[in-house]
Amino acid sequence: MEYISVTEARGMTGLRLVLSVGTPGPWGIAARALFDIRGVSFVPVRQDLMQANEELVAWTGRRNAPVAVFEEEPAVDGWLEIAVLAERLGSGPPLFPDDPVERALAVGFSAEICGHGGFGWSRRLTMASGAPAGAAPPSEVFRGYGLREGGVPEAGPRVIGILHGLSMQLHKQRQAGSDYLVGERLSLCDVHWACFSQLIAPLSPADCAIPDHMRTMFASMPPEMQAAVDPILIEHRDRIWQRYIGLPLVY
């Protein structure tokens, strides 16, 4: 993927999507996927992982990615705000169910996957605490993302609990004849799980080329966490990538 600089992006119109260069970070990959599924064109803007990104801060007020900037509207970086923006701008398959109860369930599952204290947040804590050689030092990761080192003991059980909840929902949906986490069609939580599942089961090297140390870190889990990875979670992930997002992943 070819990225433009922040300086170039500031002089453009349309949707500019700030993404981390050189890493398939799940928040950024999910943002890309949501805009792509809705058929929203965007220009990728460079953000350097774990760096000051001073120009980005001056433009958007954020140092990390993803950040979406549409026209002269305020920048948005939250997983829900990005999904809402994609829904508003696009015309592809809807990301939110029509039924209000199903909508609440879909947003709730996405919050468990993407939100503060959720699956991605907690899994990142467990990975940072046991990062292999070649990865960023744990203290740097904690500081760079505002993570609390004291939260590590709770992070593993939180990951396991969310994995159990997602797999239970998928089994329930399968019994009802549905391939999706909520209702009878794709919603944002399906896309979020497909992208965040890399943190426990990376896509194959042919589908997603990532550095060896990162692949090792993503795949390394304590036995109790590995036991919580029900095959239905990966079956669902693969189906969403193949049907809606597309492979291989280029980032």
CATH class of the largest domain: Mainly Alpha
Report on the biggest sheet: 3 strands, mixed
Give the structural class.
mainly alpha
Cα distance, first to last residue? Answer: 5 Å
Query: What name does the CATH topology of the largest domain carry?
Result: Glutathione S-transferase Yfyf (Class Pi), Chain A, domain 2
Protein described:
The chain contains twelve helices and three strands, in the order αβαβαβααααααααα. With 251 residues, it is mainly alpha-helical. It has a three-stranded mixed sheet with strand order 2-1-3, with helices on one face. The N and C termini lie close together (5 Å). 52% of the residues lie in helices and 6% in strands. Mean pLDDT is 92; it is low at 131-138. The chain folds into two domains: 6-89, Glutaredoxin, CATH 3.40.30.10; 100-245, Glutathione S-transferase Yfyf (Class Pi), Chain A, domain 2 (Up-down Bundle), CATH 1.20.1050.
Quick take:
The chain has a three-stranded mixed β-sheet, covered by helices on one side. 52% of the residues lie in helices and 6% in strands.
